[in-house]
Automatic annotation (TrEMBL):
SUPFAM superfamilies: Vacuolar ATP synthase subunit C. Subunit of the V1 complex of vacuolar(H+)-ATPase (V-ATPase), a multisubunit enzyme composed of a peripheral complex (V1) that hydrolyzes ATP and a membrane integral complex (V0) that translocates protons. V-ATPase is responsible for acidifying and maintaining the pH of intracellular compartments and in some cell types, is targeted to the plasma membrane, where it is responsible for acidifying the extracellular environment. Subunit C is necessary for the assembly of the catalytic sector of the enzyme and is likely to have a specific function in its catalytic activity. It comes from Channa argus (Northern snakehead). One of its GO terms (cellular component) is vacuolar proton-transporting V-type ATPase, V1 domain. InterPro entries: ATPase_V1-cplx_csu, Vac_ATP_synth_c_sf. Belongs to the V-ATPase C subunit family. One of its GO terms (molecular function) is proton-transporting ATPase activity, rotational mechanism. It comes from the Eukaryota. V-ATPase is a heteromultimeric enzyme made up of two complexes: the ATP-hydrolytic V1 complex and the proton translocation V0 complex. The V1 complex consists of three catalytic AB heterodimers that form a heterohexamer, three peripheral stalks each consisting of EG heterodimers, one central rotor including subunits D and F, and the regulatory subunits C and H. The proton translocation complex V0 consists of the proton transport subunit a, a ring of proteolipid subunits c9c'', rotary subunit d, subunits e and f, and two accessory subunits. This is V-type proton ATPase subunit C.
Length: 383
């Protein structure tokens, strides 16, 4: 399970007592979850008005930062293309995997000094993540353009003989060049019609050079034939060929153009390789930065919400639960029993919801205790 429940409950006689009680209810007898203390430092409380306003702002900031974290993760998967199994090992926070980072969370005093007000800390995070989001758009756009241009060229050089570029197939000696009267054309002939082609190509138009047809290459369905004729017969030949399901390709042998195409492909391929390494490094660094910021926002939200709900002086225990998938419903019931005395109205809503099948309160997940979900499955595919 990559889902965590970040909760808080008020300190009983001590915060340790709150922790021991929760452990006894969820782990010691019934193994409903794996639990960790979640350390939040002594942050500046500020006024009640500020906390109420900050509660809403942090909810929006939480959604925004989560979306950027997911964007960076998903783009890492897109860039790594064929090595998608390596995505997870590149998605680290502070050099460790995400589960380790969350379960051993320590507030980063250097990045987010706790002497600052809560509002200032949230603004630092907001600016930082907006910058990452903007940089990602710029870098992704440049890399995607490059990748798209390269793919277009590669597509031209792949596919069937009816559509693909022929520059890397034909040779100079396949053509009559620099002739005022004669021209060599290339015709795609279905494999099932080879004998028809041999019998008829010389008579499809006047002025076709006898025995001038040669098979140059084949794919699964067709063959590419060259044939030489007089220039003025081309239109007639093209028309008659089509009637017989032979397709004349629109191609002129031009060494300079073909060379330019090859050079362009080499240049794009080299540019893509050059950009790949620095881009992956940037994504790794900034994924880590964004993820760390996201978990700090969760910590801020728990702090603000706990002060608003449980009052002053600050006295609560933040706890991180990793539920076992099969017992999530049971865990929720145990937590509600444990904490329903904190908020009887929330407990009543939950009890009635449990009694009414089909009533879904998940949009406004509200419990007697402070609760936030952290889902570490950030990709839209399983790796």
């Amino acid at each position: 399970m990559t889902e965590f429940w970040l909760i808080s409950a008020p300190g009983e006689k001590t915060c340790q007592q709150t922790w021991d009680k929760m452990m006894a209810a969820t782990t010691r007898t019934n193994n409903l979850s794996t639990n960790h203390k979640f350390n939040i430092p002594d942050l500046k409380v500020g006024t009640l008005d500020v906390l109420v306003g900050l509660s809403d702002e942090l909810a929006k900031l939480d959604s925004f930062v989560e979306s950027v974290v997911k964007k960076v993760a998903q783009y890492m998967a897109d860039v790594l293309e064929d090595s998608r199994d390596k995505v997870q090992e590149n998605l680290l926070a502070n050099g460790v995997d995400l589960v380790t980072y969350i379960t051993r969370f320590q507030w980063d005093m250097a990045k987010y000094p706790i002497k600052q007000s809560l509002k200032n800390i949230s603004e630092i995070i907001s600016k930082q993540i907006t910058q990452i989001d903007n940089d990602l758009k710029t870098r992704a756009s440049a890399y995607n353009n490059l990748k798209g241009n390269l793919q277009n060229l590669e597509r031209k050089n792949a596919g069937s003989l009816l559509t693909r570029s022929l520059g890397d197939i034909v040779k100079k000696e396949d053509f009559v060049l620099d002739s005022e009267y004669l021209v060599t054309v290339l015709v795609v002939v279905p494999k099932t019609s080879y004998s028809d082609w041999e019998k008829t190509y010389e008579t499809l138009a006047e002025m076709v050079v006898p025995r001038s047809s040669h098979l140059l290459c084949e794919d699964n369905d067709s063959g590419l034939f060259s044939v030489t004729l007089f220039r003025k017969a081309i239109d007639d030949f093209r028309h008659k060929a089509r009637e017989n399901k032979f397709i004349v390709r629109d191609f002129q042998y031009n060494e300079e153009e073909m060379k330019a195409d090859k050079e362009e492909m080499t240049r794009l391929s080299t540019d893509k390789k050059k950009q790949f390494g620095p881009l992956v490094r940037w994504l790794k660094v900034n994924f880590s930065e964004a993820f760390i910021a996201w978990i700090h926002i969760k910590a801020l939200r728990v702090f603000v919400e706990s002060v608003l709900r449980y009052g002053l002086p600050v006295n609560f225990q933040a706890m991180l639960l990793q539920p076992n998938k099969k017992t999530m419903k049971k865990l929720r019931e145990v937590l509600n029993d444990l904490y329903k005395h904190l908020d009887s109205s929330a407990a009543a809503i939950i009890d009635s919801a449990m009694d009414i099948p089909g009533l879904n309160l998940s949009q406004q997940e509200y419990y007697p205790y402070v609760y936030y979900k952290i889902d570490c499955n950030l990709l839209d595919f399983k790796v």
